[in-house]
Design brief:
Elements: E1 5-9, E2 12-15, H1 20-32, E3 37-41, H2 48-61, E4 65-70, E5 75-79, H3 83-93, H4 100-117, E6 122-128, H5 130-134, H6 139-151, E7 159-166, H7 169-176, E8 181-185, H8 191-198, H9 208-215, H10 219-227, H11 232-242, H12 247-262, H13 274-282, E9 286-288, E10 316-318, H14 321-333
Helix pairs in contact: 1-2, 3-4, 4-6, 11-14, 12-14
Length: 334
């Protein structure tokens, strides 16, 4: 399979690495079609976008007409001989900010319908972070519309693959109330795959083990550290700012946050405040209700059963060690 190149930092591209198990999952979906819609969720920056873009190439090589959209970046890929599909996606992506995102997200459903009408036998729809583009309140409706393509197509087809990726823990709960999607978690890269990415970064850098301990295998944080000249404190400060870890929030929840930075499973306690858990999920600081470490339940390799050095508990985990460190710094600052 052709390995794609991905932007990593200004002037630096890297080759897609690892994710053999996640790509194998895509091959299985291609063989039997997806039913219902497949929703893959996981930590911010864990590599869902890279995996989807590589999956688009894989599905193209398996003979699928593929539409991939990433509305937040106003980006798309269309592997099809139907020029009208490419033209309409390009027109949508050229719209002004705030319009293009919504148009790309919604257009993918119409274009998939068009491909089926044109008797294209194998169709794949890959939608990346569309829920942020259309609004969380529309997430369930969007998934139901995608399911309609599978259940009630305008013409017969041979195979169809429909996959949506999201980082939004709140969206996961909303979609999980319905039976319109199968939800599969994805985690950060395992250490060997992370090393393959780390080895592609030029110049002097900290030892692999040090970088692993602060990123937990998260590719986006590796890029942030590289751009910050490996200054961990600066990256943690930026996370504090992005996640709005203000003194008032920290003061209100201090006892529980202090427990959670030591062991995230403290939040699994029946006494843990639901409001705090919801806030931490909404701010993409934790992943709550981790699935059992059964490969059949995961899109790729699952995290370890428990690794407190990386901030991973059995049922709750910090998205990365640096997310936990940002909360720790906020506690010390407040």
């Amino acid at each position: 399979m052709e390995r794609i190149k991905l932007p990593f930092a200004s002037g630096l591209e890297v080759e897609f690495v690892d994710r053999q198990l996640a790509l194998k999952k895509v091959e299985e979906w291609a063989e039997r079609s997806t039913y219902p819609v497949q929703v893959v969720f996981g930590p911010e920056g864990c590599g869902k976008t890279a995996w989807l873009r590589q999956s688009a190439v894989l599905l193209r090589e398996l003979g699928f007409h593929v539409i991939y959209v990433d509305p937040l970046r106003k980006y798309f890929e269309a592997y099809t001989d139907v020029k009208e599909v490419v033209r309409r996606l390009a027109d949508a992506a050229a719209e002004v900010l705030g319009v293009a995102e919504v148009k790309l997200a919604s257009l993918v459903i119409d274009l998939a319908d068009e491909l089926i009408r044109r008797r294209k036998r194998k169709i794949a729809i890959l939608a990346d972070d569309v829920f942020q583009a259309i609004g969380l309140g529309e997430a369930a409706k969007y998934v139901k519309a995608l399911l309609g393509l599978i259940e009630y197509p305008p013409a017969s087809y041979e195979k169809i693959v429909v996959v949506v990726a999201t980082s939004e823990g709140v969206t996961r709960r909303e979609i999980g109330r319905h039976r319109w999607a199968d939800l599969s978690p994805m985690w950060n890269l395992p250490k060997e795959g992370f090393k393959q990415l780390y080895d592609q970064i030029p110049g002097e850098k900290p030892p692999l083990d040090d970088v692993w301990r602060v990123t937990g295998g998260n590719p986006n944080l590796l890029a942030e550290l590289y751009k910050a000249k490996w200054n961990v404190g600066n990256v943690a400060d930026r996370i504090m700012e992005r996640k709005r870890l203000a003194p008032g929030f920290v003061a209100r929840w201090r006892p529980w946050l202090e427990k959670a930075v030591e062991d995230p499973d403290a939040l699994w306690s029946p006494d843990a405040p639901e409001e705090l858990i919801n806030e931490l999920e909404a701010r993409n600081l934790i992943v709550y209700h981790l699935s059992e470490r059964d490969l059949r339940l995961w899109a790729g390799e699952p995290p370890p059963e428990k690794d407190l050095e990386l901030g991973i508990g059995r049922r709750v985990a910090w998205q990365t060690p640096l997310h936990r460190e940002a909360v720790r710094k906020a506690l010390e600052g407040a």
